[in-house]
């Protein structure tokens, strides 16, 4: 029973990929950066890394599952293209914290100015 639950959880996590999981890995971030410059076939992508071809394929599968990479077939080749529009979810998430900290720093700045004005009186 316990092995069944572990297997179910692992399969659930594999199916439920999102852009945050994809960018959490430095190799996948490097692949995205590489493909943002120009489309490449899988062999060309694999040639840029000191990891096995199956490992690169696994990273590519994760990137395609969350929509950061789109694979297009041209003749016998499969070309990988970065889909940076998928990063908008990350940008929106970061923006909310950026706005939060900007407000907090504005409050701190006002308090420091107030403190300085009170010291000069």
TrEMBL record:
<feature type="domain" description="HTH arsR-type">
    <location>
        <begin position="8"/>
        <end position="102"/>
    </location>
</feature>
<dbReference type="GO" id="GO:0003700">
    <property type="term" value="F:DNA-binding transcription factor activity"/>
</dbReference>
<dbReference type="InterPro" id="IPR011991">
    <property type="entry name" value="ArsR-like_HTH"/>
</dbReference>
<dbReference type="Pfam" id="PF12840">
    <property type="entry name" value="HTH_20"/>
</dbReference>
<dbReference type="InterPro" id="IPR036390">
    <property type="entry name" value="WH_DNA-bd_sf"/>
</dbReference>
<protein>
    <submittedName>
        <fullName>Transcriptional regulator</fullName>
    </submittedName>
</protein>
<dbReference type="InterPro" id="IPR036388">
    <property type="entry name" value="WH-like_DNA-bd_sf"/>
</dbReference>
<dbReference type="InterPro" id="IPR001845">
    <property type="entry name" value="HTH_ArsR_DNA-bd_dom"/>
</dbReference>
